[in-house]
Amino acid sequence: MRLEQFRDQSGERRIVRQRLIIASVIIGLLFVGLVGQLIYLQVGQHEQLSARSQDNRVRIAPLSPTRGIIYDRNGEVLADNRAAFRLSVIPEQVNDMPALLSALDNLIGISAEERAAFAEARARARHFQQIPLKSQLTEQQVGRLAVNRHRFPGVEVEAYLSRHYPYARTAAHVVGYVGRITRDELRQRDQRRYRGTSLIGKTGIERLYEHELRGAMGIEHIESNALGRSIRVLDRDPPTPGADIHLTLDIRLQQAAEKALGDFRGAIVALDPRDGAVLALASQPGFNPNALVQGIDREAFEQLSASPTQPLFNRALSGRYPPGSTIKPFLGLAGAASGHLDPNATMFCNGTYELPDVKRVWRDWKPEGHGRIDLIQAVAQSCDIYYYDLAHRMGIDSMHQWMSEFGFGALTGIDLPGERAGIMPSRDWKRATLDASWYRGETINTGIGQGFTLSTPIQLATSTAMLANRGRPVRPHLRSKRDAKPSAPETDRLTLDNEQLWQVAIDSMVEVVHGPRGTARQIAPSNYKMAGKTGTAQVIGIGQDEEYDEQAIPERFHDHALFTAFAPAADPRIAVAVVVENGGSGSQTAAPMAKEVITTWLKQLEHNGDLALQ
Fold first, then answer.
1. Contact yes or no for 575/461 (Cβ under 8 A)
2. In 64-148, where do the E strands start and end?
3. Which residue of 351, 357, 422, 611 has the fewest C-beta atoms within 10 A of its own C-beta?
């Protein structure tokens, strides 16, 4: 019997029909889904997919703006942009990267930091993109690479603009410098504005006016293929250059101030007392900002930042020092204005001062004393006893109130980052800061600018300018008024209408320099009148039965030397504050420095026809 006789042919046909129907339904559903998806992509997602397709075809490349230039008051360039060269590598054209890096190291030198930065950038970039390897190539290095170019396929030398500081160390703390932007700095700013660049202002004017100096980024629309290679530039929106900044600083006077400081650590600040314009702001020791633009190796930067001389520290704004006797003209004026002394009355100075029921004896810098003196001679000869007695009669709270009127203990508001406020102590200050009571002996020390009292050089210069103006304060500023943005407004005049008292204070400072017993009589200029005040501030305490022996203690414990002055006395055109760390005597060290700066400026004014000296 044949096998076909046992098969159910009708049943098999029925099963086949059922399977065909099911398959047709599935195929139909898939076809409907495919058509639906096609409709969705073509209609519903048309705009989005078109944009994504365009993004894949056209990419946007940032164009870095040219950074604004910084000028001094006479148009001298303090910071500009100069052509520089950097070495880049295209990885896809290099067969043996380690061998290439080794050969380049032998030819021009590649540091470990540069290798690490290159490796990090290479990991993020595509293999056909140029990756920077070394910046700031010297002319010799560029020449060597040009001669050996045939040996290094994939190596490119390209030109770019680099920040440059023509005067190097001079005014470095004022101008500041730019450096590589950190991740924290980038998080705090609009990241889109910093695409295409890695530099940002780090200190000084470069930091404060970063927004204006930087400018606005431009963009290029570049057509690329599926692999991301550039084909052509479709459109270009050029960057907007940064704004130029004009300063009140005079670079010649700045050089004179830094030269006057020499190898000493310290600061010199010179202002125009008429409007608060900063003429010079020197802090020594300094640093070369050109070395920091593209970044120095870690070891060199650590040596710079950890140096005991602190070259990166701006002493003019952030250094706080006991003002010493430089506060005496202000305190004498305050005592006369508050009725605690008669400027014409005299007292006898025998070289010592005692408080009732207190065993300690306060001594004058002159052991035998100054004899009978009035206010003018107390300032001229810097009599400590006179001011011990005045401080005791005024009391610390009255002293704090009056000295605060002159700006002691406060920020000046200068347009430069990093300023610190000084300290003008009071009972409330000590209670809040040290949780301790105030003692009468501390009032005595405050009377000669010692104890808790601290001032910055910029604050001393600003207060001196206020005295030169007979109570009209000015806010120091570095931004020139020729720029669009005006300088900060001045505050109201000190309420002290007694012109006679102002004249007494000024006369006392003139006597310091031109009087026969003045502490700075050795620097008295012959062709103009200078008003000044010497100061010597102790760094360490000396017991009442001990004598200060400069030769017996380390240099870092020597007294600080200070001098404040303005000139000409009748028509002030410059106010100066000098602080020399561990410089010893204010009259011997700081006063000659101030005279050098003042004379330089007045001669310049005379040469320009802006002033007629005697």
1. yes
2. 70-71, 77-89, 131-134
3. 357
Which stretches of 307-378 are assigned E, i.e. beta strand?
Answer: 347-349, 352-354, 361-363, 371-373
Given a cut of 50, is residue 548 above it in pLDDT? Answer: no
Collapsing DSSP to helix, strand or coil, 406 comes out as: coil
Which residue, 469, 424, 459, is CA-closest to 564? 459
- 340 vs 356, which has greater pLDDT? 340
Which candidate, 359, 370, 349, places its Cα nearest to that of 518? 370
Question: For 209, which DSSP code?
Answer: T
Active site includes 283?
Answer: no
pTM of the model: 0.82
**More confidently predicted of 88 and 534:** 534
Q: Using CA atoms, how far apart are residues 261 and 347, in angstroms rounded to an integer?
A: 38
**Strand-by-strand arrangement of the 531-537 sheet:** 277-284, 266-272, 574-580, 560-567, 531-537
Position of tokens 């008003």? Answer: 531
| DSSP per-residue string spanning 500-556 | HHHHHHHHHHHHHHHSTT-TTGGG--SSS--EEEEEEE-SS---TT----GGGS-GG
Which candidate in 318, 325, 463, 508 is catalytic? 325
Residue 459 tokens, joined: 């604050």
Q: Which residues of 23-58 are buried (b: 16+ CB within 10 A; e: fewer)?
A: eeeeeeeeeeeeeeeeeeeeeeeeeeeeeeeeeeee
Residue 77 bridge partners (DSSP): 71
Contacts of 139 (CB under 8 A, 6+ apart): none
Tokens for 32, please give them: 């409907």
Q: Which helix (H) or strand (E) holds 384?
A: helix 384-394
pLDDT over 90 (residue 377) = yes
Nearby residues of 431 by Cβ (< 8 Å), 6 or more positions away: 437, 438
Please work out, in degrees rounded to the nearest 5, the angle formed at the alpha carbon of residue 454 by the alpha carbons of 453 and 458: 140
**Alpha-carbon separation of residue 202 from 69, 115, 160, 198, 278 (angstroms):** 16, 24, 21, 12, 21
What is the pLDDT averaged over residues 190-217? Answer: 81
